[in-house]
């Protein structure tokens, strides 16, 4: 006796796969497999973020200058960390150039390495 469930190549030797709909994904609701989803598939209230374009590419900047602190400071967080590409929208080529420019600006003290210095008071 041969059934469809026993002839699947993804089944192991024991056939320990739980029974479910074909395709391997459980159907949770009417909206694209999500519980409580909408018929269109996209949950209500969620907006798809717009693709950001690289500001350096738009302005046709080939070299990121470490002396241009106003432009560089936008890509450094309030905790003095370099912001990632997914947050700033800078392309990979300009992110590498930006990292080098920020490091150079830090070495000559144009941009701080840390957010603020707080020295603990020493009690004797």
From TrEMBL:
Superkingdom, taxonomy of origin: Eukaryota
Q: Which family does it belong to?
A: Belongs to the bacterial ribosomal protein bS18 family.
Locate the compositionally biased regions of type Gly residues: 25-40
Q: Which SUPFAM superfamilies match?
A: Ribosomal protein S18 (SSF46911)
InterPro entries xrefs = Ribosomal_bS18 (IPR001648), Ribosomal_bS18_CS (IPR018275), Ribosomal_bS18_sf (IPR036870)
Q: Give an example GO biological process.
A: translation
Any one cellular-component term (Gene Ontology):
cytosolic small ribosomal subunit
Record's keyword terms, sorted: Ribonucleoprotein, Ribosomal protein
| Region of interest (Disordered), residue spans | 1-49
The name this protein carries in UniProt is 30S ribosomal protein S18
Single GO term (MF): small ribosomal subunit rRNA binding
Any Pfam family the entry gives: Ribosomal_S18
Q: Which HAMAP family match?
A: Ribosomal_bS18 (MF_00270)
